[in-house]
Specification:
By secondary structure, the protein is mainly beta. It is 5% helix and 60% strand. The chain has one domain: Nucleic acid-binding proteins (OB fold (Dihydrolipoamide Acetyltransferase, E2P)), CATH 2.40.50.140.
């Protein structure tokens, strides 16, 4: 099973683009915080949303608190210089804004071929 739940603060405003097949994709960064021995430790996660979820959350701004349900995806590609690059990202299936009641959207409708663009 590949399932992750994250609660955190949007660290970078959402950026939206479209695949060649015209599917909307929205990406942003989420900061999570862990408290340990009276210190705070932050981690940053790359979040990707597809289709209706991408459209609904295209206007996320840094500082907003959200919860995400999704899966971890690792991918590899070659950059323009032919160097292998790697990224780990969270593909969001559900996003909830706990400060705004009744905002809850699910997204399971993205094409596998578009997931690697």
């Amino acid at each position: 099973m590949n399932k992750i739940i994250l609660s955190g603060v949007v660290a970078r405003d959402a950026q939206t683009s479209f695949t060649p097949s015209k599917m909307q994709v929205t990406k942003f960064s989420l900061r999570t915080t862990k408290n340990y021995n009276n210190k705070q430790y932050h981690q940053y996660h790359n979040i990707t949303c597809w289709s209706a979820l991408a459209q609904r959350y295209a206007e996320l701004k840094a500082g907003q608190v959200i919860n995400i349900l999704g899966e971890i995806q690792n991918r590899k590609w070659k950059d323009k210089d032919g160097i292998d690059r790697y990224i780990t990202e969270i593909i969001a299936y559900e996003i909830e804004n706990p400060l705004t009641p009744n905002i809850h959207t699910q997204n399971h409708a993205f094409e596998e071929e578009d997931a690697f663009l």
